[in-house]
Amino acid sequence: MNSLPSNFEVNNSVPKNSALNLVNVTLEYPDGDGTLKALDGVSLKVRPGEFVSLIGPSGSGKSSLLAVAATLVRPSAGLVMIDGQDAGGLSDAGRTALRRDRIGIIFQQPNLLPSLTAVEQLVITQRLRGGGARAAAERAAGLLDLVGLGQAMAKRPHQLSGGQRQRVNIARALMGNPAVLLVDEPTAALDHHRSEAIVRLLRRVTDEFSVATVMVTHDTDFVPLTDAVAEMRDGRLSAPVTPAVAATRLG
What we know:
One of its GO terms (molecular function) is ATP hydrolysis activity. With 251 residues, the protein is α/β, with parallel strands linked by helices.
């Protein structure tokens, strides 16, 4: 893969404070006559250029944490700060704008539009932000080259492998120059070799774009590629530890 062009826009100008800051976040849902606490006093800080793995059993609250961090769901209590902005103080339109401009989301399934080429998948997202067509096409081409798809820009999803589709997914999430990158089980449908390549790519873009990356994963084989590991259980989040410390706890 090629290195970034010298004029490529990244987040290196962002101060090294927390790009993502969750403070004592609680999320409750109605559950019969009572409530279900999906998140219970969760706090998490992730700085620009930091890559955090989020592990834990099914139903532990990992997806709820990502939804709150992505501003898709308002928490019942607590503070959600994105790139220095208090998401809780924004209107729905303001939260949508914050999510569009400062948060990149990589879903487990790429959900690419079948009729569009790889480069068009990226261009359309930037056009929705109001960007110019030429600038969007140039940025899309640069990102696809960065993720190793420089020779596949004109291919449609059915012509790409699962790993290649996930690379398009990653490039698309970077189109808006996000401060925060939220990744949900990016290797769930991939074999070990392709999974490792995808996590290594996430490591690289975290470093080069200086984004704060949180990756939910069930596969602990690749957490050594991240900076810290935090575990969710019953809606509570452990303090992040280094992968080496996490490995001793996981046995």
